[in-house]
Fold:
Amino acid sequence: MNPPFRQRRLFPGQGHGGMPGLEFDATLHESAPARNRMQTSTASPVPIPAARGFTLIELAIVLFVVGLLLGGMLLPLAGQQDIRNFGDTQKILIESRDALLGFAMANDRLPCPASAASNGVESPAGGGACTNPYDGFLPAATLGLSPVDAQGYRLDGWGGEAAHRVRYAVSTANANAFTTQNQMKSIGMTTLAAVAAGDLKVCNTGTDMASEGTATAACDTTPTDTTLAADAVAVIYSLGKNAGVEGAGDHEKHNSSLPAAVVAADPAFVNAPQGPAFDDQMLWLSKSALFNRMVAAGRLP
Structure:
């Protein structure tokens, strides 16, 4: 740092006669900018690190984690779709049962099931002795239901294939009284209400059923088995997600699944608990429910 230097300034006197002037002494120092210009920086520049990519191991780990996340998402989505299809099928079965009741109130009889060749029309047209009382399809064309497939059959919630057509069976009791016009009124509710040959049975298991594949087929009567219905007039059902492929065990083979039926068509059906061995969905129409609607509509007695 340079030493300061002194500067003397003389101010002239004032007044008459030139009085001695006053002396002012000031010490001046170098300014800060001057000092800064004399200093030069010697610091080295900070090095910038080189860019670094992912290693193959890191990429493999990332892909593995992403795969696990996607797999975890797909499984719940598939389960949700199954639940939706199951619910849609249940709604279709309820709608079908209501349509059967409406048809009965308008025509004094239930429709016959459609055959595999009748394009959704009851067989025979006009009712009477049905051609496929235990192994037919819901006559969607006769009932005016929609939507239907290209051949006129109502599909269940799983849809898409002929195996998913809604099935329908009807009682042949009392000489086909339930499918012959005015026969219910002629025979009378008291006679029709009694359990008779040709009435439909619904069992909770397909194990040890009596006389399976015959007109006298019936549910097993052991204490652990239950007859859910002994005199149903109609059964409406779907073969479920695995339609066309019988489930393991004895349950599904009793619900007619033409053309791949294992047991010949008979009046006994199975509505077992849902599980790996059984995924069919079923509703049935009791005599009491039918009579109630017919009386309310003035068709009976």
The first strand starts at residue 5 and ends at 11. The chain has one domain: 78-296.
